[in-house]
Amino acid sequence: MAYFQVAMPEANTELQYENAFQLLCAVMLSAQCTDKRVNMVTPALFDTYPTPLAMSVATKDEVLQYVKSVSYPNSKAEHLVQMARLLMERHGGEVPADFDALVALPGVGRKTANVMLSVAWGEARMAVDTHVFRVSHRIGLVSEKCTTPYAVEKELVKHIPDELIPRAHHWLILHGRYVCKSQKPKCGECGIRAFCKEGSKHQQNV
């Protein structure tokens, strides 16, 4: 982690948002979709539906017009509307800073809840997406026995200091997004190649 502390001291999400509600919407939309694409659709979405109240009275088809270019737009539009309605019904229009309350919202799973708690409230939560899962295994942060995102999460939080976990989540994501790519890892540009368990397997990309 020492390398990342120097190379990416201020690492954070690349999703664009102004409050917890916007962040929740953006994270929900980002599932199996790029942050770049999400950032293209959210300005108009947030301009039309700036609050949970505004979104809660919309229909799925109305919201769909704003998110139709993301992956799985129909289900995501439905989840956004249902999520906003539940925020109004159960939480007074506020996004709850509680894991169990978050995962009870439509379209919100463990990863999304951990992202919210980490990014919005700075809790020591490790959200495991495909980048974190891949990079953690490749560089040897977790054992081969960690075959599920939850297993990877538990292993990472066990060995990373609490104060670093919120940033470590982004370090691993950004490293996987731009350097340790799935198909063609850029090992020649990797600052931790000397410590990487699988770096020697990708000599052709140097």
Would you give an account of this structure?
This protein is mainly α. Helices cover 55% and strands 0% of the residues. The chain contains eleven helices and no strands. It has helices at residues 2-7, 20-29, 35-48, 52-56, 60-67, 73-91, 99-103, 110-121, 130-138, 149-159, 165-178. The longest helix has 19 residues, at 73-91. The radius of gyration is 18 Å and the shape is elongated. The relative contact order is 0.11.
Helix and strand pattern: HHHHHHHHHHH
Strand count, sense and closure of the main sheet? Answer: none
Distance between the termini: 23 Å
Beta-strand content bin: under 5%
The coarse silhouette is elongated
**Helix proportion of residues, in percent?**
40-55%
Q: Output mean pLDDT.
A: 91
How many beta strands in the DSSP annotation?
Answer: 0
Structural class by secondary-structure content? mainly alpha
The radius of gyration computed from the alpha-carbon positions, rounded to a whole number of angstroms, is 18 Å
Number of helices: 11
Low-confidence stretches: none
Topology:
Blueprint: H1 2-7, H2 20-29, H3 35-48, H4 52-56, H5 60-67, H6 73-91, H7 99-103, H8 110-121, H9 130-138, H10 149-159, H11 165-178
